[in-house]
Write a structure and sequence with these properties.
- The complex is a heterodimer.
- Chain A is of the alpha/beta class.
- Chain A has three domains: 9-183, Rossmann fold (3-Layer(aba) Sandwich); 198-358, TPP-binding domain (Rossmann fold), CATH 3.40.50; 361-548, Rossmann fold (3-Layer(aba) Sandwich), CATH 3.40.50.970.
- A six-stranded parallel β-sheet of chain A has the order 3-2-4-5-7-6, sandwiched between helices. Chain A has a six-stranded parallel β-sheet with strand order 11-10-9-12-13-14, with helices on both faces. Chain A has a six-stranded parallel β-sheet with strand order 16-15-17-18-20-19, with helices on both faces.
- Residues 573-579 of chain A have low confidence and may be disordered.
- Chain B folds into two domains: 1-79, Alpha-Beta Plaits; 82-150, 2-Layer Sandwich (Alpha-Beta Plaits), CATH 3.30.70.
- Helix content of chain B is 28%, strand content 33%.
- In chain B, the strands form two sheets. In chain B, strands 5, 6, 7, 8 and 9 form a five-stranded antiparallel β-sheet that branches. In chain B, strands 2-3-1-4 form a four-stranded antiparallel β-sheet, covered by helices on one side.
- In chain B, a hairpin with a 2-residue loop joins strand 6 and strand 7.
- The chains are: A alpha/beta, B alpha+beta.
Chain lengths: 579, 207
Amino acid sequence: MSSQIDQKTRLTGAEIIWATLEGEGVREVFGYPGGAILPAYDALRKFPIRHILVRHEQGAVHMADGYARASGRVGVAIATSGPGATNMVTGIATAMLDSIPLVCITGQVPSKVLGTDAFQEVDITGITLPVTKHNYVVTRAEDIAPALRDAFRVANSGRPGPVLVDITKDAQQATAEFDFAAAAPEKLGSHPMLHVAQQSIVDAAELIRSAKRPLILAGHGIIHSGAMEQVRTLAERAQIPVACTLLGLGSFPASHELNLGMMGMHGESWVNHSIQEADLLIACGMRFDDRVTGSLATYATKAKKIHIDIDPSEINKNVPVQVALIGDLAQVLDQLLPLIRRRDGAAWIHAINRMKGDAAVLDIKNLPDNGHLYAAHVINDLWRATSGDAVIATDVGQHQMWEAQYYKHEEPRSLITSGGLGTMGFALPAAIGAKIACPGKEVWAIAGDGGFQMTMPELATIAQEKLDINIAIINNGYLGMIRQWQETFYEKNYECSPIFSPDFVKLAEAFGIRAAAVRTRSEVMSVVEAARTHKGPFLINFLVEQEDTVYPMIVPGAALHEMIRRPSGNPLVETASDA
Amino acid sequence: MLHTFVAYVEDKPGVLTRVASLFRRLNINISSVTVGGSERTGISRMTLVADAPPAAGHRIMASLYKLENVVQVDDVGRFSSVSRELALIKVATTPKTRSHIFELVNVFRARVVDLAPGSLMIEITGSESKIEGLLQVLNENEDRVLEISRTGRMVMRRGHHTSRVLEALGDVESQNGAVRLPTAEALPEEEETEGFPSDSDLPQQQT
């Protein structure tokens, strides 16, 4: 059927759902059918929208999430009422904590029986209230298009986030006049607190001009705002080094001479030391999360702070700041940049390089080959093999931190990872979403043996959709980060952290997915190349050193500069002299 | 300290839950909340009173603005304003104590709105301290207070400005520093109460 969106027509609510999505530019949705959403599925065939059938609704939301992170477009997930809706909650919370624009659509029992504990009824708007940016209950066909269009506006405006639209079955079955244009969201006035006083811009410029040891803290907001150019201009013109948050990786080119790397709990030591020594922090689209600040009382006490963020509630939340510039980062920097003059940052950059020389992780490819396979080797080789060009979706845990340390991201949207919520099981479905969004890109899912088992049924989705995704399982037989914490804080009481895994190679083959196991360093490159050249999905089971630990590490509650360093004698060097 | 916010919110199901849930998430107790109609159609006016650290005001206001159904927020505690509360108080009486209670009611400029054998009902409007005052003297004697129903604080800023005028004045205000963000230096102190110039012409009566 041709597009409905240009003319006024009478449609069923179910048709209105797809027609509105089509009007909003949606080409792919991730979902799972069920009773209360069946009218919508019945109408799907009339619309040019691809539906990816998932194996669990959590996977559908993670896929929509990966899709949104990889493309910058709003991701759409759809599920039925009751268990279908509750299965979405973890995915929605993941997107909420990382400010990812999603529209999640759930079916709901007919409006007549709402509130009666009908079969598969659950109060999903009540349940998701704290983990959505906003949500809607729709009980009439004529309200579907306005609610969905408003949902897209909310998801994608200001600080992005997930939105849920709960649509009763009778609303899908009833008919209504569909007029896409008339359903446009009412123009709302700009946010009253999003106002950058010219004086604050002047104050910020003056702080930057007079700073001796300034640092840019580059966060996820740079990618959301598309402010990569502006941040780079600021850094280069004023010669300010840049430290990235986990979700800010890729917002500033890793190979840039002013790039320091990742800050925070598992950030490199010189980055954290630089923050502690700085006299000015320019926080761009980041929120001073506890994972990047360590103890707040000792955080960057020598530094004045400029905080640029689109969310006024982030200002002074964790760290008091001297100048707050509230608004879209690119626009704020466009206002600020004309006031920024060239300055000489050589002394400060030299000082940082001295700290770095003392503690740099030298290119680990030069490590002595003692037969052990380390996760860091695998990640580093992956980076070399893919020339840093792949889109990487990670799970959560040790491998995620090694990925952040050893895979150098040059481009935004090339690292897809659950930062705020830390959701295990994220990698595989997020990689599927990224591949659907960017079919021309090389996509890798990197997961631990624990997290992979949380969502591994989505292998069937990969097989059904014939997606060319490569999967690297960093298999150490433990819930690695749990084991690391037990080693550090619980006297090596490895309670419930050793984990059994199936033979992942055989498992993949059962899904019709090619697979191989890697046990030694020497095999890594050849198998990675085999995966890259293979047309279709490929799974690699990397059997790595079991009791390896991510260093440096900041103990929760400790100061940012009080890092636990890699004990000497470990073959993975952390100091330059060791190599 | 007690913060007082006036929020204009859409008159729709579930909006009260969203506002209340925000305070719950911040682990801040709402001392009182009153909701009713406003001068705008389809928009309700809420007065929220909450006990929170002095620096929390900005964050609460910013968080309220993050709710899609919230149209406008005013931290009225920072400005010269009129605050009122309505209370209904039912007191047990005997023929002997009744006239004494009538006297108290007169002194407090309250009204007796129901009189029955054994009890009477007092309606009192005023600031919270005035209502507390009446309750104190009622409790002083053997008069038994049977029931108390209080509306919680309603607040309106003094002067000519309406919510619409405030909106239009948004820019002017920020230049005055009235809605500028608290900086780290300003955080520990409370902001000066400042109104519009016309305020000074009005009698600053104690409320």
